Amino acid sequence: MALTGRAALIAALGSVPIGIWDPSWTGILAVNAPLAAACACDFALAAPVRRLGLSRSGATSARLGDTADVTLTVANPSGRPLRARLRDAWPPSSWQPGTETASSRHSLTVPPGERRRVTTRLRPTRRGDRQADRVTIRSYGPLGLFTRQGTHRVPWTVRVLPPFTSRKHLPSKLARLRELDGRTSVLTRGEGTEFDSLREYVPGDDTRSIDWRATARQSNVAVRTWRPERDRHILLVLDTGRTSAGRVGDAPRLDASMDAALLLAALASRAGDRVDLLAHDRRVRALVQGRTAGDVLPSLVNAMATLEPELVETDARGLAATAVRAAPRRSLIVLFTTLDAAPIEEGLLPVLPQLTQRHTVLVASVADPHVSHMADARGDVDAVYEAAAAAQAQSERRRTADRLRRYGVTVVDATPDALPPALADAYLELKATGRL
Protein backbone atom coordinates (compact mmCIF):
# COMPACT_ATOMS: atom_id res chain seq x y z
CA MET A 1 0.00 0.00 0.00
CA ALA A 2 1.34 3.48 -0.91
CA LEU A 3 2.24 5.73 2.00
CA THR A 4 0.38 9.00 2.20
CA GLY A 5 0.57 12.29 4.09
CA ARG A 6 3.30 12.74 6.71
CA ALA A 7 4.36 9.09 6.44
CA ALA A 8 5.21 9.61 2.77
CA LEU A 9 7.31 12.65 3.60
CA ILE A 10 9.24 10.83 6.28
CA ALA A 11 9.93 7.93 3.92
CA ALA A 12 11.04 10.30 1.16
CA LEU A 13 13.42 12.15 3.51
CA GLY A 14 14.92 9.02 4.95
CA SER A 15 18.26 9.81 3.26
CA VAL A 16 18.55 13.33 4.71
CA PRO A 17 21.57 13.63 7.07
CA ILE A 18 20.69 13.46 10.76
CA GLY A 19 22.47 16.76 11.43
CA ILE A 20 19.95 18.77 9.47
CA TRP A 21 16.82 16.81 10.58
CA ASP A 22 14.11 18.94 12.12
CA PRO A 23 11.10 17.00 13.45
CA SER A 24 8.75 19.93 12.85
CA TRP A 25 6.89 20.36 9.57
CA THR A 26 8.71 23.65 8.99
CA GLY A 27 12.09 21.95 9.15
CA ILE A 28 11.01 19.25 6.71
CA LEU A 29 9.76 21.73 4.16
CA ALA A 30 12.92 23.79 4.49
CA VAL A 31 15.15 20.77 3.91
CA ASN A 32 13.33 19.42 0.86
CA ALA A 33 11.36 22.21 -0.76
CA PRO A 34 10.78 20.36 -4.10
CA LEU A 35 9.20 17.41 -2.31
CA ALA A 36 7.04 19.72 -0.23
CA ALA A 37 5.89 21.44 -3.40
CA ALA A 38 5.03 18.04 -4.93
CA CYS A 39 3.01 17.10 -1.85
CA ALA A 40 1.17 20.39 -1.87
CA CYS A 41 0.38 19.95 -5.55
CA ASP A 42 -0.80 16.38 -4.96
CA PHE A 43 -3.10 17.55 -2.17
CA ALA A 44 -4.48 20.34 -4.35
CA LEU A 45 -5.21 17.96 -7.24
CA ALA A 46 -7.08 15.43 -5.06
CA ALA A 47 -10.81 15.74 -5.72
CA PRO A 48 -12.78 17.19 -2.78
CA VAL A 49 -14.84 14.66 -0.87
CA ARG A 50 -17.54 16.74 0.79
CA ARG A 51 -18.88 18.06 -2.52
CA LEU A 52 -19.52 14.59 -3.91
CA GLY A 53 -23.14 13.62 -4.56
CA LEU A 54 -24.16 10.16 -3.34
CA SER A 55 -27.43 8.30 -3.84
CA ARG A 56 -28.65 4.71 -3.50
CA SER A 57 -30.83 2.29 -5.41
CA GLY A 58 -31.38 -1.44 -5.55
CA ALA A 59 -32.92 -4.07 -3.30
CA THR A 60 -35.16 -3.09 -0.41
CA SER A 61 -35.89 -6.61 0.79
CA ALA A 62 -34.41 -10.11 0.69
CA ARG A 63 -35.15 -13.47 2.23
CA LEU A 64 -32.84 -14.62 4.96
CA GLY A 65 -29.95 -16.47 3.33
CA ASP A 66 -30.36 -14.76 -0.05
CA THR A 67 -28.28 -11.87 -1.40
CA ALA A 68 -29.37 -8.24 -1.81
CA ASP A 69 -27.51 -5.86 -4.15
CA VAL A 70 -27.51 -2.19 -3.15
CA THR A 71 -26.06 0.24 -5.70
CA LEU A 72 -24.29 3.43 -4.62
CA THR A 73 -24.01 6.19 -7.24
CA VAL A 74 -21.11 8.65 -6.77
CA ALA A 75 -21.31 11.95 -8.69
CA ASN A 76 -18.20 14.14 -9.00
CA PRO A 77 -19.23 17.79 -9.59
CA SER A 78 -15.68 19.14 -9.25
CA GLY A 79 -13.23 19.88 -12.04
CA ARG A 80 -10.75 17.30 -10.77
CA PRO A 81 -10.86 13.52 -11.34
CA LEU A 82 -11.75 11.45 -8.31
CA ARG A 83 -9.40 8.57 -7.53
CA ALA A 84 -10.78 7.00 -4.40
CA ARG A 85 -11.23 4.08 -2.08
CA LEU A 86 -14.75 3.76 -0.67
CA ARG A 87 -16.15 1.87 2.29
CA ASP A 88 -19.91 1.28 2.37
CA ALA A 89 -20.58 0.41 6.02
CA TRP A 90 -23.53 -1.76 7.13
CA PRO A 91 -24.25 -3.64 10.39
CA PRO A 92 -22.13 -6.79 10.91
CA SER A 93 -25.17 -9.07 10.45
CA SER A 94 -25.45 -7.86 6.85
CA TRP A 95 -22.77 -10.32 5.72
CA GLN A 96 -21.59 -13.83 6.33
CA PRO A 97 -18.67 -13.84 8.81
CA GLY A 98 -15.38 -12.93 7.14
CA THR A 99 -16.87 -11.47 3.94
CA GLU A 100 -17.48 -7.89 5.08
CA THR A 101 -14.14 -6.48 3.89
CA ALA A 102 -14.41 -7.84 0.35
CA SER A 103 -18.06 -6.82 0.00
CA SER A 104 -18.01 -3.31 1.44
CA ARG A 105 -14.78 -1.81 0.04
CA HIS A 106 -14.53 -0.50 -3.51
CA SER A 107 -12.03 1.34 -5.70
CA LEU A 108 -13.35 3.81 -8.26
CA THR A 109 -12.31 6.60 -10.59
CA VAL A 110 -14.83 9.30 -11.50
CA PRO A 111 -13.88 11.86 -14.19
CA PRO A 112 -14.89 15.51 -13.60
CA GLY A 113 -18.62 16.11 -13.99
CA GLU A 114 -19.46 12.40 -14.30
CA ARG A 115 -20.79 9.65 -12.05
CA ARG A 116 -20.00 6.04 -11.37
CA ARG A 117 -21.81 3.21 -9.61
CA VAL A 118 -20.53 0.59 -7.19
CA THR A 119 -22.60 -2.33 -5.91
CA THR A 120 -22.47 -3.67 -2.38
CA ARG A 121 -23.73 -7.24 -2.13
CA LEU A 122 -25.33 -8.03 1.22
CA ARG A 123 -26.02 -11.52 2.53
CA PRO A 124 -27.81 -10.99 5.85
CA THR A 125 -27.59 -13.51 8.66
CA ARG A 126 -30.54 -12.22 10.72
CA ARG A 127 -34.12 -11.19 10.07
CA GLY A 128 -35.21 -7.59 10.46
CA ASP A 129 -34.25 -4.22 9.03
CA ARG A 130 -30.62 -3.69 8.07
CA GLN A 131 -29.87 0.04 7.79
CA ALA A 132 -26.90 1.53 5.96
CA ASP A 133 -24.28 3.31 8.06
CA ARG A 134 -21.77 5.89 6.84
CA VAL A 135 -20.03 5.91 3.48
CA THR A 136 -16.35 6.78 3.94
CA ILE A 137 -14.42 8.02 0.90
CA ARG A 138 -10.66 8.55 0.68
CA SER A 139 -9.68 10.69 -2.34
CA TYR A 140 -6.09 10.37 -3.63
CA GLY A 141 -3.97 12.86 -5.48
CA PRO A 142 -2.26 11.75 -8.73
CA LEU A 143 1.01 10.96 -6.87
CA GLY A 144 -0.66 9.23 -3.94
CA LEU A 145 1.25 11.35 -1.40
CA PHE A 146 -1.75 13.04 0.22
CA THR A 147 -5.42 12.13 0.57
CA ARG A 148 -8.66 13.84 1.45
CA GLN A 149 -11.11 11.80 3.52
CA GLY A 150 -14.71 12.37 4.51
CA THR A 151 -17.95 10.59 5.31
CA HIS A 152 -21.49 10.85 3.97
CA ARG A 153 -24.82 9.64 5.31
CA VAL A 154 -26.78 7.91 2.55
CA PRO A 155 -29.81 6.27 4.21
CA TRP A 156 -31.10 2.95 2.92
CA THR A 157 -32.94 0.05 4.53
CA VAL A 158 -33.05 -3.58 3.46
CA ARG A 159 -35.74 -5.65 5.17
CA VAL A 160 -34.63 -9.24 5.72
CA LEU A 161 -37.67 -11.52 5.47
CA PRO A 162 -38.20 -15.01 6.92
CA PRO A 163 -36.74 -17.65 4.58
CA PHE A 164 -39.98 -19.73 4.28
CA THR A 165 -38.04 -22.94 3.72
CA SER A 166 -41.20 -25.02 4.24
CA ARG A 167 -42.67 -23.84 0.93
CA LYS A 168 -41.20 -27.03 -0.58
CA HIS A 169 -44.09 -28.90 1.10
CA LEU A 170 -46.78 -26.71 -0.48
CA PRO A 171 -47.29 -28.68 -3.76
CA SER A 172 -48.00 -31.96 -1.95
CA LYS A 173 -50.38 -30.28 0.49
CA LEU A 174 -52.20 -28.54 -2.36
CA ALA A 175 -52.63 -31.90 -4.09
CA ARG A 176 -54.24 -33.26 -0.94
CA LEU A 177 -56.44 -30.16 -0.78
CA ARG A 178 -57.60 -30.73 -4.36
CA GLU A 179 -58.59 -34.25 -3.43
CA LEU A 180 -60.68 -32.92 -0.56
CA ASP A 181 -62.18 -30.27 -2.82
CA GLY A 182 -63.31 -32.77 -5.46
CA ARG A 183 -61.15 -31.35 -8.23
CA THR A 184 -59.54 -34.69 -9.05
CA SER A 185 -60.90 -38.13 -9.79
CA VAL A 186 -60.21 -39.15 -6.19
CA LEU A 187 -63.12 -37.86 -4.14
CA THR A 188 -63.55 -37.76 -0.39
CA ARG A 189 -67.05 -39.12 0.06
CA GLY A 190 -69.40 -38.61 2.95
CA GLU A 191 -67.22 -36.01 4.66
CA GLY A 192 -67.14 -32.25 4.97
CA THR A 193 -70.12 -29.97 5.48
CA GLU A 194 -70.86 -28.48 2.05
CA PHE A 195 -72.69 -30.44 -0.70
CA ASP A 196 -70.84 -30.43 -4.02
CA SER A 197 -72.52 -32.60 -6.69
CA LEU A 198 -74.06 -35.92 -7.65
CA ARG A 199 -72.38 -38.67 -9.61
CA GLU A 200 -72.94 -42.32 -10.46
CA TYR A 201 -72.26 -44.93 -7.79
CA VAL A 202 -69.13 -47.06 -8.21
CA PRO A 203 -68.22 -50.14 -6.15
CA GLY A 204 -66.49 -49.09 -2.94
CA ASP A 205 -68.48 -45.89 -2.39
CA ASP A 206 -69.83 -45.27 1.08
CA THR A 207 -73.49 -46.36 0.99
CA ARG A 208 -74.33 -43.52 3.37
CA SER A 209 -73.59 -41.12 0.50
CA ILE A 210 -76.33 -42.56 -1.75
CA ASP A 211 -78.98 -39.99 -2.65
CA TRP A 212 -82.13 -42.15 -2.78
CA ARG A 213 -84.37 -39.39 -4.16
CA ALA A 214 -82.03 -38.74 -7.06
CA THR A 215 -81.68 -42.49 -7.60
CA ALA A 216 -85.48 -42.85 -7.83
CA ARG A 217 -85.59 -40.29 -10.65
CA GLN A 218 -83.02 -42.09 -12.82
CA SER A 219 -81.95 -45.58 -13.74
CA ASN A 220 -78.55 -45.41 -12.01
CA VAL A 221 -77.65 -45.19 -8.34
CA ALA A 222 -76.51 -41.63 -7.51
CA VAL A 223 -74.18 -40.65 -4.68
CA ARG A 224 -73.49 -37.26 -3.16
CA THR A 225 -69.97 -35.80 -3.12
CA TRP A 226 -68.84 -33.22 -0.63
CA ARG A 227 -66.23 -30.54 -0.38
CA PRO A 228 -64.83 -28.73 2.64
CA GLU A 229 -66.49 -25.44 3.47
CA ARG A 230 -64.78 -22.29 2.28
CA ASP A 231 -64.42 -18.78 3.64
CA ARG A 232 -63.48 -19.98 7.11
CA HIS A 233 -61.48 -17.68 9.38
CA ILE A 234 -58.05 -18.73 10.66
CA LEU A 235 -56.18 -16.70 13.26
CA LEU A 236 -52.47 -17.45 13.59
CA VAL A 237 -51.26 -16.45 17.08
CA LEU A 238 -47.51 -16.22 17.66
CA ASP A 239 -46.42 -16.25 21.29
CA THR A 240 -43.38 -13.93 21.23
CA GLY A 241 -42.65 -14.17 24.95
CA ARG A 242 -39.69 -15.61 26.81
CA THR A 243 -40.15 -19.24 25.74
CA SER A 244 -40.00 -18.31 22.03
CA ALA A 245 -36.38 -17.17 22.49
CA GLY A 246 -35.10 -20.67 23.23
CA ARG A 247 -32.80 -21.80 20.48
CA VAL A 248 -33.49 -25.02 18.62
CA GLY A 249 -30.50 -25.70 16.41
CA ASP A 250 -29.24 -22.43 14.96
CA ALA A 251 -32.44 -20.38 15.31
CA PRO A 252 -34.94 -19.36 17.99
CA ARG A 253 -38.19 -21.31 18.37
CA LEU A 254 -40.00 -18.25 17.07
CA ASP A 255 -38.38 -18.65 13.64
CA ALA A 256 -39.52 -22.27 13.35
CA SER A 257 -43.05 -21.21 14.36
CA MET A 258 -43.02 -18.53 11.66
CA ASP A 259 -42.03 -21.05 9.01
CA ALA A 260 -44.90 -23.36 9.96
CA ALA A 261 -47.32 -20.43 10.09
CA LEU A 262 -46.37 -19.32 6.58
CA LEU A 263 -46.97 -22.78 5.11
CA LEU A 264 -50.37 -22.96 6.80
CA ALA A 265 -51.25 -19.46 5.60
CA ALA A 266 -50.30 -20.30 2.01
CA LEU A 267 -52.35 -23.51 2.11
CA ALA A 268 -55.39 -21.96 3.79
CA SER A 269 -55.51 -19.00 1.43
CA ARG A 270 -55.50 -21.41 -1.54
CA ALA A 271 -58.37 -23.28 0.15
CA GLY A 272 -60.46 -20.10 0.16
CA ASP A 273 -60.11 -19.40 3.88
CA ARG A 274 -59.28 -16.01 5.38
CA VAL A 275 -56.04 -15.81 7.37
CA ASP A 276 -55.07 -13.22 10.01
CA LEU A 277 -51.99 -12.93 12.21
CA LEU A 278 -51.53 -11.87 15.82
CA ALA A 279 -48.15 -11.69 17.58
CA HIS A 280 -48.38 -11.09 21.31
CA ASP A 281 -46.46 -11.34 24.59
CA ARG A 282 -47.37 -8.59 27.05
CA ARG A 283 -48.71 -6.46 24.25
CA VAL A 284 -49.51 -6.75 20.58
CA ARG A 285 -46.32 -6.95 18.51
CA ALA A 286 -47.98 -7.44 15.11
CA LEU A 287 -51.52 -7.63 13.78
CA VAL A 288 -52.44 -8.42 10.18
CA GLN A 289 -56.14 -8.52 9.32
CA GLY A 290 -58.44 -8.33 6.34
CA ARG A 291 -55.96 -9.19 3.59
CA THR A 292 -57.06 -10.71 0.31
CA ALA A 293 -55.88 -14.18 -0.73
CA GLY A 294 -53.25 -12.73 -3.05
CA ASP A 295 -51.94 -10.25 -0.48
CA VAL A 296 -52.04 -12.28 2.71
CA LEU A 297 -48.70 -14.08 2.35
CA PRO A 298 -46.61 -10.97 1.51
CA SER A 299 -48.30 -9.13 4.38
CA LEU A 300 -47.52 -11.90 6.85
CA VAL A 301 -43.91 -12.19 5.71
CA ASN A 302 -43.42 -8.43 6.01
CA ALA A 303 -44.96 -8.34 9.49
CA MET A 304 -42.89 -11.29 10.71
CA ALA A 305 -39.61 -9.85 9.43
CA THR A 306 -39.10 -7.49 12.37
CA LEU A 307 -40.49 -9.73 15.12
CA GLU A 308 -38.03 -10.75 17.81
CA PRO A 309 -38.55 -12.81 20.98
CA GLU A 310 -39.13 -10.65 24.04
CA LEU A 311 -37.53 -11.77 27.31
CA VAL A 312 -40.76 -11.33 29.28
CA GLU A 313 -43.40 -13.75 30.52
CA THR A 314 -46.36 -13.89 28.14
CA ASP A 315 -49.58 -12.39 29.46
CA ALA A 316 -51.87 -15.32 28.63
CA ARG A 317 -55.02 -13.50 29.76
CA GLY A 318 -54.23 -10.52 27.55
CA LEU A 319 -53.34 -12.82 24.64
CA ALA A 320 -56.65 -14.68 24.92
CA ALA A 321 -58.66 -11.46 25.16
CA THR A 322 -56.91 -10.00 22.12
CA ALA A 323 -57.44 -13.21 20.14
CA VAL A 324 -61.17 -13.17 20.93
CA ARG A 325 -61.42 -9.57 19.73
CA ALA A 326 -59.53 -10.43 16.54
CA ALA A 327 -61.84 -13.41 15.90
CA PRO A 328 -65.39 -12.15 16.58
CA ARG A 329 -67.04 -15.21 15.01
CA ARG A 330 -66.20 -18.90 15.05
CA SER A 331 -62.66 -19.44 13.84
CA LEU A 332 -59.71 -21.77 13.91
CA ILE A 333 -57.18 -20.29 16.34
CA VAL A 334 -53.69 -21.71 15.83
CA LEU A 335 -51.53 -20.87 18.83
CA PHE A 336 -47.76 -21.24 18.39
CA THR A 337 -46.40 -21.63 21.90
CA THR A 338 -44.42 -23.92 24.17
CA LEU A 339 -45.53 -27.19 25.71
CA ASP A 340 -43.47 -26.59 28.84
CA ALA A 341 -45.58 -27.46 31.84
CA ALA A 342 -45.26 -24.25 33.87
CA PRO A 343 -46.28 -21.71 31.19
CA ILE A 344 -49.20 -23.91 30.08
CA GLU A 345 -50.53 -24.73 33.55
CA GLU A 346 -50.10 -21.26 35.02
CA GLY A 347 -50.81 -19.22 31.90
CA LEU A 348 -52.82 -20.90 29.16
CA LEU A 349 -55.04 -23.47 30.93
CA PRO A 350 -56.91 -20.94 33.10
CA VAL A 351 -57.94 -18.90 30.03
CA LEU A 352 -58.36 -21.78 27.58
CA PRO A 353 -62.15 -22.10 28.06
CA GLN A 354 -62.44 -18.51 26.89
CA LEU A 355 -61.12 -19.68 23.51
CA THR A 356 -62.56 -23.18 23.19
CA GLN A 357 -66.17 -22.25 23.97
CA ARG A 358 -66.44 -20.31 20.69
CA HIS A 359 -63.51 -21.45 18.54
CA THR A 360 -61.60 -24.48 17.37
CA VAL A 361 -58.16 -24.30 18.96
CA LEU A 362 -54.95 -25.89 17.68
CA VAL A 363 -51.69 -25.61 19.62
CA ALA A 364 -48.46 -25.97 17.62
CA SER A 365 -45.20 -26.39 19.51
CA VAL A 366 -41.58 -26.70 18.40
CA ALA A 367 -39.80 -29.73 19.87
CA ASP A 368 -36.02 -29.83 20.28
CA PRO A 369 -34.51 -32.69 18.22
CA HIS A 370 -31.49 -32.68 20.53
CA VAL A 371 -33.71 -34.00 23.33
CA SER A 372 -34.59 -37.04 21.19
CA HIS A 373 -30.90 -37.65 20.52
CA MET A 374 -30.19 -37.43 24.25
CA ALA A 375 -32.98 -39.90 25.02
CA ASP A 376 -31.37 -42.46 22.71
CA ALA A 377 -27.85 -41.93 24.04
CA ARG A 378 -26.02 -44.64 25.98
CA GLY A 379 -22.42 -45.68 26.45
CA ASP A 380 -21.22 -43.96 29.63
CA VAL A 381 -22.57 -42.60 32.89
CA ASP A 382 -23.05 -39.05 31.58
CA ALA A 383 -24.98 -40.31 28.57
CA VAL A 384 -27.28 -42.37 30.78
CA TYR A 385 -28.05 -39.37 32.97
CA GLU A 386 -28.71 -37.26 29.89
CA ALA A 387 -31.03 -39.95 28.53
CA ALA A 388 -32.97 -40.01 31.80
CA ALA A 389 -33.34 -36.22 31.80
CA ALA A 390 -34.48 -36.25 28.17
CA ALA A 391 -37.04 -39.00 28.84
CA GLN A 392 -38.43 -37.01 31.76
CA ALA A 393 -38.73 -33.88 29.59
CA GLN A 394 -40.52 -35.83 26.86
CA SER A 395 -42.90 -37.34 29.39
CA GLU A 396 -43.78 -33.90 30.75
CA ARG A 397 -44.53 -32.62 27.24
CA ARG A 398 -46.81 -35.59 26.57
CA ARG A 399 -48.68 -34.98 29.83
CA THR A 400 -49.11 -31.30 28.97
CA ALA A 401 -50.38 -32.19 25.49
CA ASP A 402 -52.86 -34.68 26.99
CA ARG A 403 -54.21 -32.01 29.33
CA LEU A 404 -54.77 -29.68 26.37
CA ARG A 405 -56.54 -32.43 24.42
CA ARG A 406 -58.97 -32.93 27.29
CA TYR A 407 -60.12 -29.37 26.61
CA GLY A 408 -60.80 -30.30 22.99
CA VAL A 409 -57.57 -28.75 21.70
CA THR A 410 -55.70 -30.30 18.77
CA VAL A 411 -51.98 -30.49 19.58
CA VAL A 412 -49.14 -30.68 17.05
CA ASP A 413 -45.71 -31.19 18.65
CA ALA A 414 -42.84 -31.69 16.20
CA THR A 415 -39.26 -30.71 15.45
CA PRO A 416 -38.61 -27.57 13.33
CA ASP A 417 -38.34 -29.52 10.06
CA ALA A 418 -41.39 -31.68 10.76
CA LEU A 419 -43.69 -29.04 12.26
CA PRO A 420 -44.80 -27.26 9.04
CA PRO A 421 -46.03 -30.39 7.18
CA ALA A 422 -47.53 -31.83 10.38
CA LEU A 423 -49.45 -28.61 11.00
CA ALA A 424 -50.68 -28.54 7.40
CA ASP A 425 -51.89 -32.14 7.75
CA ALA A 426 -53.74 -31.26 10.95
CA TYR A 427 -55.47 -28.38 9.15
CA LEU A 428 -56.50 -30.60 6.24
CA GLU A 429 -57.82 -33.20 8.67
CA LEU A 430 -59.98 -30.58 10.38
CA LYS A 431 -61.40 -29.56 7.01
CA ALA A 432 -61.96 -33.16 5.90
CA THR A 433 -63.90 -34.02 9.06
CA GLY A 434 -66.02 -30.88 8.95
CA ARG A 435 -64.60 -29.44 12.18
CA LEU A 436 -63.49 -26.23 10.50
What report would you give on this structure?
- The chain has 436 residues and is of the alpha/beta class.
- The protein contains 14 helices and 20 strands.
- β14 and β15 (251-252) form a beta hairpin.
- The radius of gyration is 33 Å and the shape is elongated.
- The chain starts with a helix and ends with a helix.
- 31% of the residues are buried.
Strand order of the biggest β-sheet: 17-16-13-18-19-20
**Main sheet makeup:** 6 strands, mixed
Structural class: alpha/beta
In round numbers, the mean pLDDT is 85
Can you give the helix content as a percent range? 25-40%
* Number of helices in the DSSP assignment: 14
- Radius of gyration (CA) equals 33 Å
Number of strands: 20
**Low-confidence regions:** 1-23, 183-195
Give the amount of beta strand, in percent.
Answer: 25-35%
Write down the overall geometry.
elongated
Measured distance between first and last alpha carbons:
69 Å
Biased composition (Polar residues): 93-107
Protein name: DUF58 domain-containing protein
InterPro entries: DUF58
Organism: Streptomyces lienomycini
